[in-house]
């Protein structure tokens, strides 16, 4: 049986085993502690949704490199595409030389990324942070305005500008001063909306909060863009309600503001469509600019920004780009990733996995009073834990214990949310039904074990 078809299996009693612990110890001595790592797992090889450590323990990965491996680990077609390109050349800086891989990938994204406008352009950089930062630069260049509105719960990166845009300040402790011109609004987190409101009333409430930003922080005529994630990642896997997005689109059109969608984590089939913003476009509220990264190239560093051509045409020459943007290996990988996702209908795989897991999560919500909310789109799902369903008091302690115990049984999961009380699902979309069931069984065992933790 290949690794990709196996189920979780721990043979060392506890993890890491001796070989894995040796690598963990070497990491502690040689690598920056501030990078952080809360998991007792060491990857020696990986395939599909599974990885093996140096001691022979086999883990099911529900983190997927934080959304990087939607296609699974070590897909042979992607591996071959990278090998074939490396035999030709590994790098051609696009500011100096043209290469067909960059052009072909841009042409493909111009067709499939659901931004407003029929004639599109795409640029490539290397990380989600760079994509978001370039999107801001592009919006400022197009509008001639300085200010950006972002949201509570947002995560946009760790560069100086994107740390300012990111809400959770644990990611920017001691790193200031930060750039001016970034203003924050409350995100429509419906589970934690003021008590007693209907969904419609809550959306009106959050739209009023956005309108207040124009009075209290930045006048609309000074605002270049409103930027948010279609489904917040670090913020707790909170989807932006489509009626809210419609209202934001109307506000942007009214004031000449660009709408930027950060699809770094939610893109490439995760939501049950190739891009979550396809739902936006179908509802008549497409974004002006979409940023993407993570699963775009299956782990080869790559990110992208797509917008209509008239927006890009306002950007001064030389202000965007970079040495490694659109690297030849990354372009080859990304082209193959998209080909496979379209051919094998990966969005349908996401819907299938999401339906199975959300059904079980909702059963737990009825049975276990520590489960407060289940939400998400496709297989980008969050399950929020509370001390009790009435008070909705966040319960990060149980989440920490569940994740630790699940890892010891061969399931790797990760928390999210402002309070660290959400467990997020970012499993590779090639995960089999048997693996999905095995993961749910481990999760529930860890949950039951820790029910009394407050």
UniProtKB/TrEMBL annotation:
Pathway listed for it is:
Amino-acid degradation; 4-aminobutanoate degradation
The chemistry this enzyme catalyses reads: (S)-3-amino-2-methylpropanoate + 2-oxoglutarate = 2-methyl-3-oxopropanoate + L-glutamate; 4-aminobutanoate + 2-oxoglutarate = succinate semialdehyde + L-glutamate
Question: Which InterPro entries does this entry report, sorted A to Z?
Answer: Aminotrans_3, Class-III_PLP-dep_AT
Q: Which GO terms describe its molecular function?
A: (S)-3-amino-2-methylpropionate transaminase activity; 4-aminobutyrate:2-oxoglutarate transaminase activity; identical protein binding; pyridoxal phosphate binding
> Where would one find coiled-coil regions in this protein?
none
Per the UniProt record, which EC number(s) apply here? Answer: 2.6.1.19, 2.6.1.22
EC top class named in words: transferase
Q: What are the protein's UniProt keywords?
A: Aminotransferase, Pyridoxal phosphate, Transferase
The cofactors named for this UniProt entry are: pyridoxal 5'-phosphate
**Family of this protein:** Belongs to the class-III pyridoxal-phosphate-dependent aminotransferase family.
State what protein this is by name.
(S)-3-amino-2-methylpropionate transaminase
What organism does the UniProt record list as the source?
A: Clostridium thailandense
């Amino acid at each position: 049986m290949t690794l990709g078809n196996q189920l979780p299996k721990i043979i060392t009693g506890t993890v890491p085993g001796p070989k894995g612990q040796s690598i963990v110890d070497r990491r502690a001595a040689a690598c920056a502690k501030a990078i952080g790592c809360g998991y007792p797992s060491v990857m020696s090889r990986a395939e599909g949704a599974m990885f093996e450590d140096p001691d022979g323990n086999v883990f099911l990965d529900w983190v997927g490199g934080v959304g990087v491996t939607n296609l699974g680990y070590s897909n042979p077609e992607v591996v071959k595409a990278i090998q074939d390109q490396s035999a030709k050349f590994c790098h051609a800086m696009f500011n100096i030389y043209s290469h067909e891989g960059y052009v072909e990938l841009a042409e493909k994204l111009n067709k499939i990324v659901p931004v407003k406008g029929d004639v599109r352009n795409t640029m490539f950089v290397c990380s989600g942070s760079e994509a978001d930062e370039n999107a801001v630069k592009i919006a400022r260049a197009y509008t001639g305005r300085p200010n950006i509105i972002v949201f509570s719960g947002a995560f946009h990166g760790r560069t100086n500008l994107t740390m300012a845009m990111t809400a959770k300040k644990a990611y920017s402790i001691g790193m200031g001063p930060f750039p001016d011109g970034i203003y924050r609004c409350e995100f429509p987190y419906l589970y934690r909306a003021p008590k007693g409101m209907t969904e419609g009333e809550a959306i009106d409430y959050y739209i009023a909060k956005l309108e207040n930003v124009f009075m209290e922080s930045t006048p609309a005529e000074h605002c270049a863009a409103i930027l948010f994630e279609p489904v917040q990642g670090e913020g707790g896997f909170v989807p932006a309600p489509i009626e809210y997005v419609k209202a934001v689109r109307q506000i942007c059109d009214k004031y000449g503001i660009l709408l930027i969608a950060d699809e770094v984590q939610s893109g490439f089939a995760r939501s049950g469509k190739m891009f979550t913003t396809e739902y936006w476009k179908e509802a008549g509220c497409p974004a002006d600019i979409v940023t993407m990264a993570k699963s775009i190239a299956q782990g080869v560093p790559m990110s992208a920004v797509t917008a209509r051509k008239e927006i890009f045409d306002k950007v001064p020459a030389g202000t965007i780009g970079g040495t490694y943007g659109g690297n030849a290996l990354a372009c080859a990988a990304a082209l193959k990733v998209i080909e496979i996702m379209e051919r094998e209908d990966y969005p349908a795989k996401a819907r299938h996995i999401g339906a199975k897991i959300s059904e079980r999560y909702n059963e737990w919500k009825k049975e276990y009073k520590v489960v407060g909310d289940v939400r998400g789109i496709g297989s980008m799902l969050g399950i929020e834990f509370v001390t009790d369903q009435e008070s909705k008091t966040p319960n990060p302690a149980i989440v920490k214990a569940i994740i630790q115990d699940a890892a010891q049984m061969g399931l790797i999961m990760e928390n999210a949310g402002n309070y660290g009380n959400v467990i997020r699902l970012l499993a590779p979309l090639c995960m089999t039904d048997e693996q999905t069931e095995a993961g749910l069984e481990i999760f529930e065992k860890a949950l039951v074990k820790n029910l009394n933790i407050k």
